[in-house]
Amino acid sequence: MDPDIARGRLAAERADASALIGSMRARLSAVVDAAVDEHADDEHDPEGSTLAFERGQLVAQIERSTERVAEVDAALARLGDGTYGRCLDCGGDIAEVRLEALPATGVCITCASRRHRSRW
């Protein structure tokens, strides 16, 4: 894959993840503020989920997005040192279509499949 195209895709992905983190942090702040409100009845809100549940969902999304930024940063580092597009596990080439779909990926489809099977 052309390095400039890869860099552009990675930069866009990083910007999207960073924007999502900012948005989720703002929502989390609002949820925390609502929990401080003495009139908030966290466990008996007939309108939906509890504040604790919503807070947990937001924290998890922030963590996932933060991990995504780290993955993109690692891919940008590989791009800089000339190893972008090489599988971190087997050293083989990562298919260009895979890099188009998942620009920050560090593993080929074969190795990704092995990782997935080993978790289950």
What do we call the CATH homologous superfamily? DksA, coiled-coil domain
Counting DSSP E segments of at least 2 residues, the number of strands comes to 0
In the CATH hierarchy, the architecture is Up-down Bundle
In whole angstroms, the N-to-C terminal distance is 32 Å
What ranges have pLDDT less than 50 throughout 5 or more consecutive residues?
A: none
Question: Any idea of the CATH topology?
Answer: Four Helix Bundle (Hemerythrin (Met), subunit A)
Oligomeric state of the chains in view:
single chain
N-to-C SSE series?
HHHH
Proportion of residues in extended strands: under 5%
- Mean pLDDT comes to 88
Structural Rg: 19 Å
Structural class: mainly alpha
CATH class wording: Mainly Alpha
Helix proportion range: 55-70%
Could you give a short account of the major beta sheet? none
What is the count of DSSP helices, taking H or I runs of 4+ residues?
4
What number of domains? 1
Overall 3D shape: elongated
Keywords, separated by commas or semicolons:
single chain, 120 residues, mainly alpha, Four Helix Bundle (Hemerythrin (Met), subunit A), 4 helices, 68% helix, elongated, zinc, Znf_DskA_TraR, zinc-finger, TraR/DksA family transcriptional regulator
Describe the protein in words.
This protein is mostly helical. It has helices spanning 3-36, 51-81, 96-101, 109-119. α1 (3-36) runs antiparallel to α2 (51-81).
